Amino acid sequence: MQYFFVLPLNYEKIAAYFANPYKNKCMQVFKFGGASIKSADAVRNMVEILKRFPDEKILIVVSAMGKTTNALEEILHLKLKKLSTKATIQKLYEDHANIVNSLFDDHASEPLEFLQSIFEELENSLEKIDINHYDQSYDSIISYGEIISSNLLLKYLELKEFSITKVNAYELVRTDDTFRDASVNWIKTKETISEKVKNEFTNHQLLITQGFLGGTEEGQITTLGREGSDFSAAIFAYSLNAKAVTIWKDVPGILNADPKKIQDAVLYQELSYKEAAEMTYYGASVIHPKTIKPLANAGIPMHVRSFSKADKGGTIIHDCKVIHEIPCIIIKEKQSLISFQLNDFTFITESLIGKIFDTLNKHHIKINMMQNTAISFSICVNDDLHRLDQLMSELKNDFSILYNTGLELITIKNFNESLIDRMTHKKEIYLEQRTRKNYQVVVKSLESRV
Ligand code: ASP
Ligand code: MG
């Protein structure tokens, strides 16, 4: 008689193992976000961090400097409204030029020349944008932020005598042409990245690349969604089977609430992939929601550490069994609440809800919370005026639509009543929901009202 033991298997993990049977023990990925490179001092601090790892091969993923992405969005919107972009472009140029002058000192002429030519290129690209292809125009303009930062940082790290070269994410991260929210072709991406990066690492200690950017097979630049550089770090780490990813941030790690908004926030020393993914889903802005999955599938740990206190360990997200019972508060700002109603006492049927979902899907709008009653269906979504306009104009013949903007979605995991009172104090409640462990509420702050 034979006995068989059946073990639970994680097929994705096994597939990742056979795709690359050994962990790339000597290689890791660092991601520096906009805040960590927003000024000359911040960049010098980044250099100090890199000096702590003299023997490591590191792929550095960078965002645009400071608030560049927001500025580029503003420039694009001014241009689309046929307003002057001159002052905003000039300000953005000067912000970068100031950083260059401070960092490069006597060696500033070459990086300044680069800066001038790339800003000329940006202005030429602005002349070519097409209002009928908003998403594609968006990616062609917004991508300048990361292209500028990666080139300037490459030049500065070369000046500081690091052994470094640049690889371009828009040539390596292969995506479809869903501009502004591109989907990654994992097989092609892994193939291109592992080949190119391994090659470059044979001659260099460090590589630098752009976060947030991808490219189609035809060579068009795409972006992966706002704050997508964390996801880029995960894409590179997964494709290289890296030893670890570290996200260097302006917070000490992942806390149970945003320390900028809530004083007594507590740091998590470690989190399981599952808990971390859940937190990002509810809107914890500390990491991009798509980041965890590729790392969990390949078993790659992710560290979230403070760039200003680089000697501290921060939070590690990995394969662990810890389940936290302390409350966790996540506040997602810039939310809109849209309610679809029928005027003639007809109930909202599944097929009508289906129509709403199809339209949401078509315009790449994600639902953060939803609720239906007999005669209305309400969704809480990110304020993205361009997408929401398209949604509403497409559905306005079927429904009467009510619409509120400037709201917050608050999620409390492991809630208690006193915390709910504290979080909803001086707030007007628009929508509320609770399950056994989670409380969610859409609110408007009464204090910020004029
Ligand atoms: N620069 C992009 C943004 O601000 C991507 C990122 O920072 O992750 O959305
Ligand atoms: Mg950014």
Structure, described:
- There is one protein chain.
- This protein is an alpha/beta fold.
- It folds into 2 domains: 4-318, Carbamate kinase (3-Layer(aba) Sandwich), CATH 3.40.1160; 328-449, 2-Layer Sandwich (VC0802-like).
- 40% of the residues lie in helices and 22% in strands.
- The protein has helices spanning 11-19, 40-51, 68-80, 86-104, 109-128, 134-142, 144-159, 169-172, 186-203, 229-240, 273-282, 292-298, 350-362, 385-395, 417-424, and strands at residues 27-32, 57-62, 164-166, 206-210, 213-215, 221-223, 245-249, 270-272, 302-306, 315-318, 328-341, 367-372, 376-382, 400-413, 427-434, 438-445.
- The strands form 3 sheets. The protein has an 8-stranded mixed sheet with strand order 3-4-2-1-7-9-10-8, sandwiched between helices.
- A hairpin with a 5-residue loop joins strand 5 (213-215) and strand 6 (221-223).
- Helix 2 packs across helix 4 (86-104) and helix 11 (273-282) runs antiparallel to helix 12.
- The longest helix has 20 residues, at 109-128.
- The radius of gyration is 23 Å and the shape is globular.
- Bound molecules: aspartic acid (ASP) and magnesium ion (MG).
- Keywords: Amino-acid biosynthesis, ATP-binding, Kinase, Nucleotide-binding, Transferase.
- It is an enzyme of class 2 (transferase).
- Its EC number is 2.7.2.4.
- It comes from Marivirga arenosa.
- GO terms for molecular function: aspartate kinase activity; ATP binding.
